[in-house]
Amino acid sequence: MTTVYDHAVAGNATAIEELLREGVDVNVLCVSDEEGEPCTALHLAARHGHAQLAELLIKNGADINACTVSEWCAITETPLDWAARHGHTNVAELLCRHGVIETSALGSPLRMAARHGHSQVAELLIRQGADVNDGHEEDEGTALHVAAREGHVAIAELLIRHGANTNSCDRASASPLHNAARMGHAVVAELLLEHGARADAEDEVDETPLGLAVYNSHPRTVELLIQKGADANAWDKRLRTPLHLAVSKESSDVAEILLKRGDAVDVSAVDERVDSIAHR
Fold first, then answer.
1. CB 41 within 8 A of CB 26
2. Which of 86, 191, 259, 263 lies 20 to 30 angstroms, CA to CA, from 164?
């Protein structure tokens, strides 16, 4: 027997309309095979980009702010979250137009769009009043933290243009530049630095963007940060400098970049491996 779930995934608005006439609850929960948690037909329409079906469901009383149900995770998601995750701007616009959604609730969809690189959805949500600096005290930080981590330059540019704080800190006191440096996204890192990001910002364990770029062996990002004035002798809480980190990772190309700074890099605290690593 074909279920509400099957029809919603297929975008079969005619079949869903018939089920509604027969008395099926428009907000009945379906178990989503893709997402793995109970959700409504409106969630499924949003996930698959079925705008016509979404409009039908809304007109028949679908709860636009319905949340998924999860026994193992405290995070619940709305249809707008799913539309943002999958980049369906038409459905996201429909949901915003029909729903009474507080602007504070748009922070999560904006981070979803930033995570998956959906610039059009992000721009729509910002127009609807989403706070680009929402989430600065959460684990993953703001939408700019997310875009920096994923390397989405266009979204980072969009967020900065709309007032995103390039020095905002997440729960671990890391900035968007920390995320870009950790992942080696040099283009995003340069964009952040051009818009006021602090090259020597420290997180809760005193790690700097340069230290993260060195530790994760991203020579292009290391070179960029040094050019922009990052302290090549900064110590973290474990009393390691960037050169310590390069040596410990046996990253010769990164060590060479650091040593080219000559007297600016203090080699006195690093053991004899420096010379061998740097000249392989």
1. yes
2. 86
By the 8 A CB rule, do 83 and 46 touch? Answer: yes
Longest dimension (CA), the chain: 80
pLDDT for the residue numbered 278: 46
Return the structure tokens found at 102: 């507080």
> 45 exposed, middle or buried (CB, 10 Å; 0-12, 13-18, 19+)?
buried
Assess contact for 130 and 103: CB atoms under 8 A: yes
* Nearest residue to 168 (alpha-carbon basis) of 182, 179, 152: 179
**Which residue ranges in the chain fall short of pLDDT 70?**
1-2, 32-36, 70-75, 100-105, 136-137, 262-264, 266-280
Count, residues in the chain: 280
Helix 219-227 with 186-194: angle, nearest 10 deg: 20
